[in-house]
Each structure stands twice: as structure tokens, then as C-alpha cells.
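Input/output pair, single chain:
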Amino acid sequence: DIPKNPIRPKEGDSHPLGALPIGTAICQVEAWPGEGAQFMLKAEEEAKIIRTVDDRVVIKCWDRLEFAIPKEAQCVVGTNSIHPLRALPIGSPNRMRWLGMRPRSGLFKKKDGRMGRKIKKMPPTIYTTPFAEFMKDVGTPSSKGIRGRSMVMDAPSEGKRGRLSPSKKLTPNGW
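Output:
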């Protein structure tokens, strides 16, 4: 049930996206209701609810991408926790070794922005679809489940990588 007025969320509780107020930090978000969490699964990842549009809620992930997800999709309020040893401040290269990580090259140059920064426009909002609809009419009869266009390459100029030239192919008459 999605109430008319947004609820007061408590961190760690699971609610439908439509029941939460705008600006709530969320994690483990379903792309479509009932299909399981798709977004913000790793440690210390979170998304924010930006706005509602008709029967969808727009969330912003990774400070860049916006996804329009149905209001009925479940999510968890707050962020995923991180193991305390992973959150330790690393004070020296020896501590890295103690934690089982190999040393890096040592040279670290912070980028200072002297050459400027390209400012790009935001990508458009991505509208999610059910997985079954997304994978409909995918692949070929012999190899199902491969997302993308299938093409047959039979002209000699197409797909030369890994292909033997016609003079070196084994034919019924021999090489």
C-alpha cells in the first residue's frame, strides 16, 4: 500500500518507493516490482529520491544517472554498511601490507584542474522495464539470451580478425 502522504522512514526499513518523501537516501532498489534489488547493492552506496512523475519515482544514482522506477518497487532506507576493517584509515604502506594489499607505484599526482574541465549535460532519465520484456525477441534460435543485434558475416571483408584468408582454408580438394 502506498499512502497518500509520505511516511517517516526509519533507517534499515524496506518500503515501496512511492511511500517515501523526496530527498530520502535509499539503497538496494528494485528496477521493477518483485524482481529483486538491482541498484545500490555495494557497501556505502546510496541513491536519492529526486521527484515523482505520474506512476513513477525518479531516483539519482552515482551523482549522475537518473532512473524512473515504478512506485511499487521496494527499497531499503539508508545506506549499506561496510565491514569495520575495510573502513580502517590506512596510515602507512606497511598497514596496507598487513591488510594483505600490495603496494602501489608510489607516485600520486593530484589533478589540479589547470587545463579546465569539460562540463557535460546530464544524460536523459532511464525508464526501467520488466526483465522479461527487456529480453523479449533477443538472440537467434540457436543461441538465445544474448542481448544485442545479431548479424551474419559472410562477405570476405567483414570480420577479418581470427579468420583465415580464403587461400588458406581447408576445402574438400585440400589446402
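Strands lie at 14-16, 25-27, 29-30, 37-39, 47-53, 56-61, 65-70, 74-77, 126-127. The two ends are 71 Å apart (CA to CA).
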